[in-house]
Amino acid sequence: MGSGVRGRRRLGDRRAELTVEPRGALVRGASVTVVSVLDPAPPALDARLVLRCGSEEATGQPPSVEVVVVPDADVVCVAELRTAAGAVLLTVSRELHLPARAAESGMASDGEPRRKRWPWIVGSVALAAAAGAVAGVVVHNHNQPASFSGTTVVGW
Q1: Alpha carbon distance, N-terminus to C-terminus of the chain
Q2: I need a labelling partner for 150 at 20 to 30 A (CA). Which of 72, 85, 92, 141 fits?
Q3: Rounded CA gap, 29 and 44, in Å?
Q4: What is the CA radius of gyration of the chain?
Q5: Structural domains of the chain, with CATH
Q6: Would you call 93 helix, strand, or coil by DSSP?
Q7: Measured distance CA(2)–CA(95) in Å, rounded
Q8: Exposure pattern of 36-50 as b/e (b: 16+ CB <10 Å)?
Q9: 8 A C-beta contact, residue 71 and residue 32
């Protein structure tokens, strides 16, 4: 799922990288595992990783820690590398964005692009207005008495 968000910092004479990655697809209401990894994890480092995603939190020893979340909205995850005394050595945060719902994305529920309905609605209203105007003219002319000008002819 992409390259994740990375935080880098020198730990002694080495450079370490802390990442936050979801494992699997982000789907509204379905559980997903979020992993934080310290790479490389210095072997003599007396530290702990803390990962918070929304209201879920996990703590563990490097090189990785994971937490399972069930997102109903976008979730902010924060990973911290802390000393045994609790001082923060490295921190990184990432917002996990859920895909938009079908109605919000312009996609039908089957994944096909939603067809635009407004041209059909405008066309139908225009056709009904034209038909009404024609019917009004016909009815108006049909109810008028015939007017004759000039001579009236009567047959015997």
Answers
A1: 100
A2: 141
A3: 40
A4: 36
A5: 5-99 (2.60.40.10)
A6: strand
A7: 13
A8: bbbeebeeebebbbb
A9: yes
Beta bridge partners of 91: 80
Quick count: other Cβ atoms within 10 Å of Cβ 70? 13
The residue written with tokens 């939603």 in the block is 114
CB atoms within 10 A of CB 102: 14
Phi, psi of 131 (to 5 degrees): -65, -40
* Tens of pLDDT, residues 43-88: 767 888 899 998 889 998 888 898 998 888 888 999 888 888 888 8
CA distance 148 to 154: 13
Output the six-digit token pair for 122.
């405008």
Model confidence, pTM: 0.56
- Are 80 and 91 in contact by the 8 Å Cβ rule? The answer is yes
* pLDDT score at 93: 87
